[in-house]
Amino acid sequence: MSTRNWILGGILFVAIAVVMLRVPGRTAAGPSSAATVKIDNFSFTPSTLTVKAGTQITWTNGDDIPHTVVSDDQTFKSNVLDTDEEFTLTASKPGTYPYFCSIHPKMKGKLVVE
Amino acid sequence: MAAQKDKDTIRIDHNHDGLDRRGFLKCMAWAGTGALCVLQGGVLKSYSLSDAAGVEKAARGGLSFVQISDSHMGFNKPANTDVTSTLQAAVNKINALPVAPEFILHTGDISHLSKAQEFDTVDQVLKSARPKDVFFVPGEHDVLEDEGQQYRERYGKNTKGSGWYSFDKKGVHFIGLVNVMNLKAGGMGALGAEQLKWLEDDTKQLSKSAPLVVFAHIPLWNVYPDWGWGTEDSAQALSQLKRFGSVTVLNGHIHQTMQKVEGNVTFHTATSTAFPQPHPGAAPSPGPMKVPAEQLRSLLGVSEVTYKRGHHPLALIDSTLE
Questions:
Q1: pLDDT the model gives residue B91
Q2: Which residues of chain B are at the A interface, by a Cβ-Cβ cutoff of 8 Å?
Q3: Across residues B247-255, what is the average pLDDT?
Q4: Do A103 and B141 touch (CB under 8 A)?
């Protein structure tokens, strides 16, 4: 092929490469925007959850008995969650938030917002 | 009075009867002369066996009531998909008791989710019970989301604070306590300072020979702290009641019968009328325990409590639904 074709091909390759690198990819290493906590056997799993501010956290009750999610300092408080019901919270303010189930206060968990 | 006539040996189960050795020695001497020994108000009285009227008088003035617990109206998971019919079976059991109970004590978790229709259904079922008087204390499932306001409107008229109260029946003093409010993270049941102060005032004027029945939802002794089966400040309540010669503590919450005797205090927990729970530590958590359908009713039941004047402890008979 002629040199001109090689140069055009090269420019095209670079242009495509630039476009591809600028498109946010599936594999981009940014913060995850959602996290989950499972409630099973009267415990929160994971018992300590660390997330970046702005993450949406969902607690799901898998027990045959209702539970609640209440922070020790009362900054967040779910309704009563029956089996399969969920509580969603967007963690906005950085800090450490110990929480518990107000019906079964021995059940404890910790939310860490970075 | 199953006493042995042997003068040197007392073969009476001391803990079971709660009577002291000296009392029984006296009693046996009298029995040798054909007398009947009855403990009345902490004092031994003797009646000759021919004094039928005297014996009858001693037995009269008895009191019989029934404890039910944890009806969890509204629960509908596999452990029991029909808690209404098992509650009705419990009421039928009560109605079939040979000695008609004078009233019912419900030690809480009346409802499962504190919903109006759940309380309504329990009230409806209890209408078919022969004893028309029902006394309640709330469980943690009865005070969800409204700090117990609905509970108190329905069952807590003339109660104090979050729903505690006392009343008297035939010389027995009944005290209903609330230990399911304002629970702290990592803790168990709690009575709180205000209620403890009220308890002190309530029992201040009582004679130490007055029999007490204390009822509350969560056990007032540490059945199993890991599962929250205990009350943080119950020791304070119990030390206030130390001077009384006969204290019976009736609780629920753990959905199985358990009994403990400590000095003059008999502790008893009732089964649920809804679903059983595992024995302490026998499962990963204290949730509803599924059993084969044909076994369910053998793990649910009612407890009959009888006070015979002069007898301590009160007689407790647990009956299962089947």
A1: 97
A2: 77-79, 112-114, 140-141, 144-145, 183-188, 225-228, 284-288
A3: 97
A4: yes
Phi, psi of B268 (to 5 degrees): -145, 135
Q: Which of A69, A106, A110, A111 to mutate to test the interface with B (most CBs of B within 10 A)?
A: A106
Q: Which two structure tokens, joined as six digits, stand for B102?
A: 């004078």
For residue A7, is it within any domain? no
Is A73 part of a structural domain of the chain?
Answer: yes
Flag if A103 and B144 touch (Cβ within 8 Å): yes
| A100–B contact, CB cutoff 8 A | yes
A106 in a domain, yes or no?
A: yes
**How near does any CA of chain A get to the CA of B199, in Å?**
25
Regions of chain A where pLDDT drops below 50: 23-30
| Domain assignment of residue A43, yes or no | yes
CB-closest option in A42, A79, A98 to B145: A79
Instruction: State yes or no: cis peptide before B313, omega within 30 of 0.
Output: yes
Distance, CA of B268 to CA of B220 (rounded, Å)? 10
Task: Inform me whether the pLDDT recorded for B202 exceeds 70.
Answer: yes
Count of domains observed in chain A: 1
pLDDT band at residue B25 using 50, 70 and 90 as cut-offs: very low
Q: Does domain B63-320 have CATH number 3.60.21.10?
A: yes
Q: Which of A63, A65, A82 to mutate to test the interface with B (most CBs of B within 10 A)?
A: A65
Q: To 5 degrees, how large is the angle CA B221–CA B232–CA B229? A: 50
pLDDT on residue A1: 58
Chain B residues with beta carbon closer than 8 angstroms to that of A84: none
Q: Three-state DSSP class for B308?
A: coil
Tokens of B104: 């019912």
Contacts of B106 (CB under 8 A, 6+ apart): B67, B68, B69, B71, B134, B135, B136, B137
pLDDT band at residue B58 under the 50/70/90 scheme? very low
Instruction: Evaluate if residue B44 carries a pLDDT over 50.
Output: no
Which domain range does residue A79 map to?
Answer: 34-113
Mean pLDDT of B221-234: 97
Q: Under an 8 A CB cutoff, do A82 and B145 touch?
A: no
Q: Is B69 in a helix, a strand, or coil?
A: coil
State the CATH number of the domain containing residue A70: 2.60.40.420
Residue B6 pLDDT greater than 60, yes or no: no
Domain boundaries, given as residue ranges, for chain B: 14-59, 63-320
